[in-house]
Every structure is written in C-alpha cells, then in structure tokens.
Specification:
The chain is an alpha/beta fold. It has helices spanning about 40-50, 60-65, 75-80, 85-95, 110-120, 130-150, 160-170, 185-195, 195-215, 240-250, 280-295; strands at about 30-35, 55-60, 70-75, 100-105, 125, 175-185, 220-225, 230-235, 265-270. Helices cover about 45% and strands about 15% of the residues. The protein has a five-stranded parallel β-sheet with strand order 2-1-3-4-5, sandwiched between helices. The termini are far apart.
Length: about 300
C-alpha cells in the first residue's frame, strides 16, 4: 500500500453523509499538533491531520515531543523505541497521568500497538494504515474529547456547547425547533436546607424525568448548568413534552420530605430557521417565558 499523502483517499461516492449536528467537532483553529517522524512520512501525516489541526510542528528530537504543550502528538514507533530510556519513560508517564496531549503512534507492529495502547497511548496504528482511516480515528478522538469536556459530571448530559451546535445545525438545515427549559424552583434554598447530596438527588430525579420525555419525543437533551436543563424537539411536540415532564416530576417528588417538596418550572418557545444567526434572542425570549411561568 502506498504511504504517500494520497494513501487512503476515498471517492466522494464512498463518503458517508452525516446529519450536520453529527459533524460538529472542535474548531480546527484550537488544535495544534507536533510530529516526530522521518521526512518521507511527512506528506502522509499532513494528509491524515488535514482538517483537524491548524498548525503542525515537526520536532527534530524525541526530547522535543516529550515536553510538548501541543494538543496532539504524533510519532513513529521506531523513533520512540530508539530514544533514550528516560525520555521514553517520561512519555509513557504523560500517557498515564497528563490530560494532554493526545498521543498517536504510527508504523507500529501488532505487539507494539497493543503495548502502547495498554500503556496509555490514545491511538496506535501499523505502517499499512490508510491516511483516511487515521484521519477518521483522530476525528473521533477529538470529537469525543470535546463532548466529554462539555458533559456534566453529575448527569452525564452534554452542556451548552453541544446544545448550541445542535440547535444551529437544525436551523441551518431549514428545520424549526422548540426549546424547552426546565429548572427546579428555589433550588438553592433546597440545597441549603438539606445539603448538596440531597440537591444532587433532586437534579438526578429531574434528569430521569427529562431523559424519558426526550426518549419518547425524539428530543436532544442538555444540562446547561446547576438545575437548568434544555431540550430541543419538534415544535408540535413541545406542549406534550412539557406536560409529561410536569406530571412525571410530580409523581417522582412524592418520595421527598412531605413538608418541603420542590416544584419545577417548564417553559418553551419555537425557534424559526431565520433566527439561526440570532440565537441569543431566542434564549432571552425563553428566559422571559420562564420568569412569567414561575410567576403564575
């Protein structure tokens, strides 16, 4: 198999067309890469990294890449194995202990690939891997990392960044959507009275209610912070979504202390495709509706 920069190119007819919200990934201007590989591999590597990174620096020594602050580090297994023991150990330590960069090992034998990935490397591929395959794996790695950074550690739901991209993608495709916001009334007071663990349990109760409603109505659900949640559904499903959430939460809260059972506020607004460039206005409108709903 050719190892040139053309290796692994796919015809347009072979490409899988994804919904626009699936294609969202970190903006390429945020991702820097450092590479330590023989010059004859540089063209192939440039092709594999194209579209994912804004800058590629080619390191001359293993020591340079060991101390990098880049977002992604790519090196050949041969150069890694030939490096000084203390440098290789430092790289292996970073694989296990440091959150970045992402480490990609290329041109590795089967045994070396298994060893590197057990040791903590993010991707390890052999010499015959097509550039298109490595590109797809890097894309998946960056997308997953971006999603995890935006995910709530309590509920596991995506946050503001993915909500924004999802709404924008649906509007750009010509679809109107409904935004449904839900939050817990006087959540801070409940937290102060019963403690943060009880507050977390309350948020998880609302999460369970919203997940089930989102599943039934085909909605996208995000945890945008604290006790605030936002679902994105079809406009004709918003009223049913709201009612289901209110009814299910009322049922679920019966297991809470009778003298202080919290309530929730749910409000929604439709967003038309022509509002795609003015989403701040749509969310401001939704905020005003929440205040009005809470006031009765």
């Amino acid at each position: 198999m050719s190892t040139s920069g053309e290796s692994g190119r796919c015809d347009a007819s072979d490409a899988i067309r994804l919904p626009p919200e699936w294609e969202a990934r970190p903006a390429r201007e945020r991702v820097r890469a450092v590479v330590h590989a023989p010059p004859e591999r540089h063209r192939w590597i440039r092709w594999a990294l194209a579209g994912h990174v804004c800058e590629i620096e080619f390191a001359r020594t293993l020591e340079e890449i060991a101390g990098t602050d880049a977002d992604l580090a790519l090196l050949t297994h041969e150069l890694l194995a030939a490096g000084p023991d203390e440098v290789r150990l430092e790289i292996a330590r970073r694989w296990r202990e440091d959150p970045g960069p992402f480490w990609v090992i290329i041109d590795a034998s089967c045994h070396a690939r298994v060893t590197c990935q057990h040791a903590g490397a993010d991707i390890a591929v052999d010499f015959g891997t097509a550039a298109s395959e490595l590109s797809a794996r890097i894309s998946a790695l960056l997308r997953r990392a971006w999603t995890e950074r935006d995910r709530s550690p309590l509920t596991g739901l995506p946050g503001n960044a993915w909500l924004w991209r999802f709404v924008r993608a649906r509007l750009d495709s010509g679809d109107a959507v409904a935004l449904v916001m839900a939050d817990i009334d006087d959540f801070k007071g409940y937290n102060d009275r019963y403690g943060h663990l009880a507050g977390d349990d309350l948020i998880l109760l609302l999460t369970e209610v919203l997940r089930e409603a989102a599943r039934q109505h085909g909605a996208f659900l995000a945890h945008v912070g604290g006790d605030d949640f936002c679902a994105v559904c079809r406009p004709d499903a918003a009223a049913r979504f709201e009612q289901q959430v209110m009814t299910a939460f009322e049922s679920g809260r019966r297991g809470l202390p009778a003298r202080d059972r919290p309530t929730i506020t749910v409000a929604s607004t439709d967003v038309a495709p022509e509002e795609a460039d003015h989403l701040h206005g749509a969310f401001e409108r939704l905020a005003a509706l929440r205040i009005a709903a809470r006031g009765g």
